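Weekly modeling sync, notes
Attendees: S.R. (lead), two postdocs, one rotation student

Agenda item 3: backlog of single-chain predictions. S.R. asked that every request posted to the team notebook include the full sequence so nobody has to chase files. The rotation student volunteered to paste the first one in as an example of the format we agreed on. Action items at the bottom.

Example entry:
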Amino acid sequence: MYAVIRASGKQLRVRPGAVVKMDRLDAEPGQTVTFTDVLMVGTDQGVTIGAPTVPGAAVSATVLENRKDEKILVFKKRRRKNSRRLRGHRQHVTILRIGDITA
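Predicted structure, as returned to the notebook:
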């Protein structure tokens, strides 16, 4: 069984027991979060596609940790002008363990 959910402006394909990384949520570690924007649910019997969401479907997940992601370096250079700029960015992320998917 799997589901496609919409969270923080992105779509994620999740399975029960999977560990996923998404943008920072306002939840403490150990807390349970429920996503009701389920766009699609796939089971052994077939696939249910929502218009735009599947009615009555929900995905629950447990927050494992809140942390910063790996650093992304942004380097800009203008050739022949001796102009360089190096910036780093670390995105705040939440690590989740997907629980059960109810359709």
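Discussion: group reviewed the output briefly. Residues 2-67+94-102 form one domain.
Action items: rotation student to repeat for the remaining queue; S.R. to check formatting next week.
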